Amino acid sequence: MLLRSLAALTMLTAASAGSAAHAQSSGSAVVQLTLLPSLTVTGTQDLEFGTVAGFSSTTVLARDGGRFTIQGQSNAPVVIEMTQLPSSLAPNLALGAWTGLHNRSPGPGSATAFAPAPGAALSAVLHNNGRYFIWLGATLTATGAPLGPHSAPIVITVGYN
Length: 161
What we know:
Helices cover 13% and strands 42% of the residues.
């Protein structure tokens, strides 16, 4: 009797293991994405102070200063970082009091003011044509700087948010 019960239990276990294998199911999903176009940042006008006396200070307003155009996906949110704003152009030739304007339209008239600082970020939404505009101004103070032309890069980094 014990032997018969053991045989029945073994057959029951084997049968249930086999039926569990047949009860398996699987599913699938599709991997999808929409690839955004590359962002481009173009400096369209330099921040130009002109000819400056060796001991003087001059200011260029943002609306008249350096200009940048950003191009990307229409209506996309972006983060604009002031990656590099130089603090000087040469010894005794300091840059400071940075001012900025930003706008979805190409004119500075209705642009919004902001205070640019190295590493500072600005959130924006590109226009429905995918463009955005930045204007930068600053104050240059010369205190006996070396003669001749001087320059330093302004670097702006833009990424999708």
